[in-house]
């Protein structure tokens, strides 16, 4: 009963986020255009032929995640910053319990990240002639990576929304937390690009899932504190 | 009649201990084999500094968790003091590590996994202070920075223990190597243990001073407000 009401409250928060985003499209435009601009700059300057064949799997995986990560940071903080800017945070505090707010906002950021990945990855593969041997492995790495990244960035967004200069702070606070995740994501993407076997991405997947798990557990414990202070 | 203050003997004992450690590092421990010249002597300073940087991170976590439970601003002052010292010791560990890297491998920075992990630890500390600077209200600053400290701590084991073991590393074996044994000449080991104890003592002395200063500041502010 309690779990189902938490789920329905979370879905209501997610619905509110999606409706307000579809109305304003601020985060969608920011994330999408930032990622596309970075992708075009990278593709124009480096292109498919400027990297040595032996270095391609590693360098192209790293470049892909740099584009995805910096594209994502331009919009993920908005879920909480906009509530403080529009002074709607207090109403939301009264309307939903903290964990429902967290999971609703996390769901929105996850959808945003998955949307960004589905837009950028095929374009990147086409523009950079990036061939991926293990498509299933890459999909798994991308999906788990999105969960882990959404978990930490939603929590950081909640923290910085209550501080001044929140836009700049988001990048400063997220980058050190995301770096270990980016390291394993790049490893996983490289493994998926070079091997068709799903087993090749398992070590990276284990690390990504563990990181996502510990971040989520910490966020569930910390979010009510951050939200109510 | 005013109470006579006790003589603080232990900072002097610490001073003497550190003097002996510095002397022993240069004159008692032999030069390590397999390293250029006397370069390996930096281990007696670099390893304890890196250890203190991680210890400070743990103290910061404990104080942050205590603040979140008890809501006492002194715990926040403890967390900030530990982070401040952690930042200083991570800078020292990075600088001494870079000097060793220049002598051994020819360049100050090689993007070795251990170099990267200490650099990220430094970034985490810097981000923690950037967050604190951005929040003027004491209570909110304490609660948000404590939350960030806990969140940052959960990613640290990956950086400090997992990532350096995934990648091939130029870095010499840690004190307890990958085979689970200690492979160090006995006198070097004695000096290193002494240095670890000395640097830990130095950390706790500086930490106590910082917390005492913060307590005085808090009390003065409370008096002004009342």
Helix-strand layout with pairing:
The complex is a heterodimer of chains A (229) and B (226).
Chain A: H1 2-24, H2 26-45, H3 56-73, H4 78-85, H5 89-95, H6 98-127, H7 135-160, H8 166-194, H9 202-228
Chain B: H1 9-27, H2 43-70, H3 73-105, H4 113-133, H5 138-166, H6 186-225
Helical stretch count of chain B?
Answer: 6
Q: How many domain units of chain B?
A: 1
Mean of pLDDT of chain B: 85
Q: Percent range for helical residues of chain A?
A: over 70%
Low-pLDDT windows of residues of chain B: none
Broad shape of chain A? globular
Total beta-strand segments of chain B: 0
How large, in whole angstroms, is the Cα Rg of chain A? 18 Å
Structural class of chain A: mainly alpha
Q: Which two chains share the most extensive interface?
A: A-B, 36 and 28 residues
Report the biggest beta sheet of chain B as strand number plus sense, adding barrel if it closes. none
Task: Tell me what you see in this structure.
The complex is a heterodimer of chains A (229) and B (226). By secondary structure, chain A is mainly α. Helix content of chain A is 82%, strand content 0%. Chain A is built from 9 helices and no strands. Helix content of chain B is 75%, strand content 0%. The longest helix of chain B is centred in the C-terminal third of the chain and has 40 residues, at 186-225. The radius of gyration of chain B is 20 Å and the shape is globular. The two termini of chain B are 28 Å apart. Chain A binds chain B through residues 152, 155-156, 159-160, 162-166, 169, 172-173, 175-177, 179-181, 183-184, 187, 203, 207, 210-211, 214-215, 217-219, 221-222, 225-226, 229, and chain B through 68, 116, 120, 123-124, 126-127, 130-131, 134-136, 139-140, 143-144, 147-148, 150-152, 154-155, 158-159, 162-163, 166.
